[in-house]
């Protein structure tokens, strides 16, 4: 049973990353109509920024949780201003191709300087060690990742679904021209939205740094799994992205325990099954 | 759903004549390669990728469907052909047939799943399906995992032609390429191709006109996957191995890049793009990971300033259809 709980925890942690990443993808898709293929590369950048802050500036994990998303978010906003905004009005596919190119550039540059091996990032002192819960041993850092991700996910949900800013955002998603007529600066909102989505990816990167090591290609496979998560959950609902992300992480963890050979493929197989039964995705609207 | 060709010219007799002339010139030039000092293996590799890119272009350029998983057909056909030649000891013609048939079967299965969604979702689904296959091939015993199938024998085509001879192999690959190219050329200039273009431009309208658009998309997808498989089967004879790199996402991206550079929705663009990208990889191979950075930059530049691609811009400038 110990092994089962351990895999369940790994699943919850991966689920946290899937949720944070698919949440960002959904928010960006809503505003920009772009599937951000660079999301995995920006997730990796978040981890690297945390690494640089610690090794070069001596800035610890807690500040990295704040600064890495801001730095990567600003980088993302520069990308949006200089490139992505020119794709407005074109077919969605061009956004996918452009961001795929950006992902190749970012990952290539990092690979060139850091190779393919991982750089260590140690767990902050306050979160070292573990707790004995009676039925299992819980490493504190891992518990922290799950709880903190849940908090961030629900904060994002609250921001979009329950605040005035979020109402503008949802309105601009539905009808940007009308929202502009009300005097709201929609292009600036689009830039900030991209920054927010990218920041969430970077945050996931910082959280994963002490668990998965910091590697240039750490986002390469994750992004494809997250695409499958997005196809399964549909991008129409924020809460749908969060729940699907966590659920698929847990299912993946359970597969690792019961049938490890299929743990890499289970999310994709589920995607196929969902497409056969309900092609629009579990919560999605028809595209 | 206008992808690239906002100014597609109708298939007029003049356009068709232009394309036939260019085709004949291309075929003659390619046939003359063994008489020059050009390294035949480079051209053979480029021809395999050119066929692959043309097959991919049939979907995106004429059907408006972006497949981000076309490497799965290349890799599947490669593995099946390689296994048939090496383990079963089949002759080359049956080896090619086996690989192509396997890709066709894969296209039927994945097509039925993928065409259930359009646009951006279609791209994500094909990408996920190819990743699913990647993990299956990584674990399946017959692919030999990370090592791949090595030292695949080339054999005698129809029992007569020794494919170990570079010149004979070259003409075999060229024949395969020209066959695949003509099949695609015929398809896009047929009533079937016209319906595909109608679906690309406005699927709802095509449905309202009574076309079962899902069937057309599925047939285009199967045709594209089968010809991509033919390219993969031919590539086995050139490279003499089948490995995981042919199933990777990076390979699917490379196929997209070739077509984008040449021109989405142009007849000859994918061929041109394949030669450019294969040459680029060959000459820049000493630069290590910078090749990835350069490929990414080409993607970005093409999408931002060069959406018609080289052949597409050329055709647009001269108001010709190429």
Task: Report on the architecture of this protein.
The complex is a heterodimer of chains A (287) and B (322). The longest helix of chain A has 31 residues, at 2-32. In chain A, a hairpin with a 4-residue loop joins strand 1 (130-132) and strand 2. Chain A has one domain. Chain A is globular. By secondary structure, chain A is an all-alpha fold. Chain A has helices at residues 2-32, 39-57, 61-82, 92-114, 140-162, 164-174, 176-181, 186-212, 220-233, 238-258, 266-277, and strands at 130-132, 137-139. Chain A has a two-stranded antiparallel ribbon. Chain B has one domain (13-317): ABC transporter involved in vitamin B12 uptake, BtuC. A two-stranded antiparallel ribbon of chain B has the order 1-2. In chain B, helix 7 crosses helix 9 (213-239). The longest helix of chain B is centred in the C-terminal third of the chain and has 27 residues, at 213-239. The A-B interface holds A 29, 35, 83, 86-87, 90-94, 96-98, 100-109, 111-112, 220-221, 224, 227-228, 230-231, 261, 264-265, 268-269, 271-272, 275-276, 279, 287 and B 1-3, 60, 66, 68, 113, 116-121, 123-125, 127-129, 131-132, 135-136, 138-139, 249, 253, 256, 260, 288-293, 295-300, 302-304, 307.
Task: Give the gist of this structure.
With 287 residues, chain A is mostly helical. Chain A contains 11 helices and 2 strands, in the order ααααββααααααα.
Set down the secondary structure blueprint.
The complex is a heterodimer of chains A (about 290) and B (about 325).
Chain A: H1 2-32, H2 39-57, H3 61-82, H4 92-114, E1 130-132, E2 137-139, H5 140-162, H6 164-174, H7 176-181, H8 186-212, H9 220-233, H10 238-258, H11 266-277
Antiparallel strand pairs in A: 1-2
Chain B: H1 13-31, H2 40-63, H3 71-86, H4 92-114, H5 119-139, E1 156-157, E2 161-162, H6 166-188, H7 191-201, H8 203-208, H9 213-239, H10 249-262, H11 269-283, H12 290-305, H13 309-317
